[in-house]
Amino acid sequence: MPESAKGSATIEVYGLGYIGLPLAVRLASAGWKVRGIDTSAGRLARLAAGELLGSEAGLKRDFGTAREAGRLDLDGKGRAGGPAKVGFVCVPTPAAEGARSDGFVRSAAGEFLGTAGRGDVLILESSLEVGTTEGIRDLAESRGHSVGDGLGLCYCPERIDPANKEWGIENIPRVIYCSDDRSFRIAKEVYADVNGGNLARVASPRTAEVVKSFENAFRLVNISLANELAVLCDRLGISAADVIGAASTKPFGFMPHYPGAGAGGHCIPKDPRFLLRSAEKAGAEFATIKHALRINSAMPGYVAAAVDAVLGECGLERTAIVSGLSYKRNIEDMRDSAGFKVAAALASKGIRALGHDPHFDPAHEEKYLAENGLERLGFEVLDGLGDGNLEGISCLCIVQHHDATRGRIAEIYRESKVPVIYDCQRLIAEDPRSKTLLVSLG
């Protein structure tokens, strides 16, 4: 591959999910020849038909333009021959007990290696357990490639914060490990069209791997600390929000994190487990992460117990709607969501639990089940929060405040349409005119 790769190289992106598709579209829009590769024939067919769903919708114009210009091909596999290429691996890495976290990464990397030539560069972006990059290096060399000489190998862990309007793919700095200087120069050229080439190079693949897990462990630990504070403040009869707000006036040494029903999604509950596994393999104990994971896992049950207690104290029918099923406000991603867990915990206490989320698409129910480790949903999902759906409901338990529902929830509270609202995020301001009992976590 020539030192200046643009115009003479093909980009292969393995995995067209929430990381790979935006990357492929951004590079194609910048003038690179991109081949999008995915093992899901259904996803490839949908994309080929121009059907972009959920958060993908924001890519629709650039996606269509790149397709029309012939700069973005969709395929089920990489190709041999032709121009030199740079491969990006953006596939899932499961963290479930007993599951091999590097299975999809090795499969995608193996496919790239099977068609790679001298001078090509492979860049891993998936979250990885420590040692995975070295395992890919060994895989490459077992297939006759000379890493650092004939073939470049890099690890540049993805960083993304869905719905963040300030920090996106185009301006988030990245950390990268590269096997050699030439590969780093090529990576800089490619990432110049991703995030302006803002790459902090580290010397070891293990350093880059630990960085990714540690970033999300930091979030997990501090969110769990805020959740323990909320539990304590519940018992003390004070507001955790007031404590955090006052502490935030300190101009140094403090960063506010806020309580909730539990951190979900694809990164915060998962990536720290990679660090925990690595510690255990190294004969060390990462007790902080272990404890934070326990706290996070306990929060949906704590919320359900609080709702159960309020219903019992008020002598109300044991019915509740869980509002906000996605793992974060204003997004459609339901992976490892606290909302699903709260609904399940309520049901385990004999409470009739229903759910609602403006981003829930019934057509994707099977995907939601798989993402949350469920065989069946276990609760009915309502199509809205209209008065008819509120009939017979004793409690509205708000796990996520989406912009699309905040106005309606404010109306439900103001007009006392349910006896109890339990607010997991303490975002509803008390209104003395309302007859609804407002209870907040922390």
Describe this structure in words.
There is one protein chain. By secondary structure, this protein is of the alpha/beta class. It folds into two domains: 9-203, 3-Layer(aba) Sandwich (Rossmann fold); 226-440, 3-Layer(aba) Sandwich (Rossmann fold). It is built from 14 helices and 14 strands. The protein has helices spanning 20-29, 41-48, 60-68, 103-115, 132-142, 181-191, 205-236, 240-247, 271-281, 287-314, 338-348, 365-371, 387-390, 403-414; strands spanning 9-14, 33-37, 72-75, 84-89, 121-124, 152-155, 174-178, 199-202, 319-323, 352-356, 380-381, 395-398, 420-423, 437-440. The strands form two sheets. It has an eight-stranded mixed β-sheet with strand order 3-2-1-4-5-6-7-8, with helices on both faces. Helix 4 runs parallel beside helix 5 (132-142). It is globular, with a radius of gyration of 24 Å. The chain starts with 8 loop residues before the first strand and ends with a strand. The mean pLDDT is 93.
